[in-house]
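Interim report, section 4.2 (structural modelling).
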Amino acid sequence: MTATVRVNPKLISELQSYGAEDVQNCYHCGNCSAACPYSSEPFILPRMSTRLLQMGLEESLRGNLEPWLCYYCGQCSDQCPRDAEPGATMMSLRRWLTGRYDFTGIARRFYRSWKIELAALIIVALLTGAGLLAYGFLWGGGNLSVFDTGGGQSAFLPAGAIHVVDWVLGLMFITVVLVNMARMWHFTMHAEDIPRASAGAYLRHALLFPLHFFTQKRWAKCDNNMPWLTHLPLMLGYLTMLVLIMFFLEPFQDGPAIDWKLHTLGYLATAGLLVGVWYAVRGRLKKNVPMYRHSHSTDWVFVLLLLAIVATGVLLHVLHRLGFGAAANLTYVAHMMVVVPWMMRFPFSKWSHMMYRPLAMYFAAIQTEALASQSPQLQGGAEDELAPVAEAA
Amino acid sequence: MRVGVFVGEYLKETGRNLEAIAGYARNLPDVEHVRLLAFRQLLDPAALANELREEKLERVVLAGDSPGYFKPAFTQALADAGKDAREVHLASFREHGAGSPDSLERAKAVIACAVRAVPFSLVAVPKPAVVKHATLVIGAGIAGIQAALEIADAGKKVFLVEREPTIGGHMAMFDKTFPTLDCAACILTPKMVAVSDHEMIELITNADVQEVRGTPGAYRVTVARRARRVDPETCTACNSCTDVCPVSVWSEFDSKLSHRKAIYIPFPQAVPTAYVVDPVACTYVQSDGQKCGVCVKKCPLGCIHLDEKDDTVDIEVGNIVIATGYELFDARKIECYGYGKLPNVLTSLEFERMTNASGPTGGKIVLKTRKLNKRIKVEEFVADPEGPSPKSVAIIHCVGSRDPKYNPYCSRVCCMYSLKFAHLVREKLPQATCHEFYIDMRAYGKGYEEFMERIKAEGTRVVRGRTAEVSEVDGQMVLKGEDMLRNRLVEFPVDMVVLAVGLVPSPGNQDLERQLGVPRDSDGWFSELDYNGDPTYTERGGVFVAGMCQGPKDIPDTVAQGSAVAAGVLRSISSGYGGGDLSNLSLSEIETRARDLQAKLSPAGGGQ
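Predicted structure of the assembly:
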């Protein structure tokens, strides 16, 4: 093994802009790792990550899966005798890792400056709005109608056209995320001190990705299950909405004769989104749940944008149903002005954890298997602890 | 000479009235310029030099807590302004007994001296005062005993007041001392007997200090004595009364590992060697003489007086020594260790009693077993000498210490006594495993590091990592922690867990603080006058501190401080000056003396 270890002495101060606090307070008593419901060898969290951070071992930290294995139940921070906030450290590391995985560097900019992020979002929103208006005036001759209101006026921007735009934008950003996921694989599974896993291992554990993607079932290990139980409808509602929009936009939007199946699904998804967003906003305001105690600017952008999307979406639907065509059309423009920036944020923000987190669970299982086959003593657990030194010697 | 005074704080923001201090400095002779500095203000020497030039200052006085922090900038500025750079004088409040935000007069006096560039210690010499030769020592643990013996051996009268029915304090409960593994009782009991036999020591046990009046050198103290109900002069400790007493309650001396009667002697070597009645448990006292009273009939010497009433004693003393010791941190507060719920999670003091050869198990380390208390018909966990011995023992360090949620400070003795426990486990139960879970091993004293190495070599597994949880799974205790030097999570079954609980100030200290006017620090320990230079004096003249009440320390340090306190007390008696007391010296007197001393030091002038 090479002897060169690169140390970044400024890593901790760099992490501060990602929301890390009091990392230096830690004196490594190990209380947090022992208290953590997610900590199990070889992934000793959160203390190992804190150690790497204190020592400035940027490369090891980049290849570290541990932050993604943490669901921030806050047990560690509650028991920490030094108020070192290990939970907040793990959260900030997830942001930092998102920035590291992102090859464009945009995520890093967004995380480190809320001004840049806000400016970018506003510019995209305004461009979207201007684009829609320009299209309506220049090509549609002043027709801004999105919906076929039935009054003889046909839509200038029918769902079919929107669909195409959706797909183009979606594919663009999915490509970025896929590249970032490949980078995550490279950093974590291809690092120097990690044993190479066989293709068989990748296949054997392949089902873990969809399992964790859809259920986040590890989260249930927290004493307080509310964050998980409210995240679940949020995530499922979100996925449902995404599928509806990406694949069934035309029947879903056109109305008034929307298929009842889509209709019901849409309402359920909206309810799920509302529950999740309500819990997150309330938690971040009240700071009553450990994971909501330290909000980063990007967290607020995340929930507020989501709230704006849900609000404009609901309003749009109501207006459309009640027959206020003009108002519905205007709301549609507003809706698009939040949806497009939101989509744009996907690869560069918290959004992307929906891919990274299940991927990390999947990789972690593979790594555990590879390490265990490499050093059998890891399988022994703590039994050798019981033998006193004198007898062993 | 034109003097500028700069007032500021560096160490912490104390809330001291800096405005009032600055106002005082403005009126001092020669002072032409006074400015308040912000907390830890960063100073630019160039700007300061301009300020000094504008005000034509030749001398700078820096006043406050640790004002030396600001000194380099001012030295530079004076040099840049073309003045004598040596003319920066510090008026450090903390080092001259004005550490408390309330001691404004002392702070002003310190500035008055610095402005004239004369040392405070040469100016502020207390005036001779009549010092009564008797001394009051509050608390008869090892610190109080040591101080009392030193003073009494020098031929001066000592009143030794103890809250408990016996003297000896916590040390009397201990089995061995670290790092020498000497028998604690063998060191302490001869001293206890010496106290009881000493003609110059008047022992008042079962008593509290109720009221303190008077001034340094002449204190009038009222001591409230709780009725002992047994005459210590005639009692021969024959045990007849205890044999017949029908009441059984938990023994405080044995840390509630065993029971005692309502009339009892805390331990056989107790001083005074006399029985005592617990009025809360005694049937006769509780029924106002209607029931029981069998012990009175049984006593062959007729020394039991169950109707005895509490009384007070008034004494006059010149000096007072506070030696009130400590209490244990309440381990119930840390729920994850299960103390109070799991019977075999013990505090250090409970384990200490268990390993003590004169303790409830005769020195055997046993698991507590369930036993029916026939009197109240409740099953209780007791330490029965015939009980099973543990196969694995875990000792957890820093319980309630070094944690801002409980006590931020290090209790200083726990690492070493935990190592001592490990030794006792290995010695008495060679088949059992023993684990120590520590954060940092603080083996700081003479022979301590060597002791730690010895314990490790004896086969104790010393694991770096604090334990997170002790729980019970199917009747078996399980301990969870991290071995952080090996990056392993450990989870294994244990039979007995000993919590190395930290130390907290005695609850009675609050009342003493009010009575004696001696401030306590934020942790509740009594504040000494100066941590380095005057560790036994306090802000209040004629009042001294010894032992744990001033802060956690081990037995050698406690004994040393007990002796040191005697030196201060004897000095104040034989010199005729109240010990460290400036309260009879007014601010104007200090100012006058400073002026005189300045004139004497520089005959060429400079004064008025």
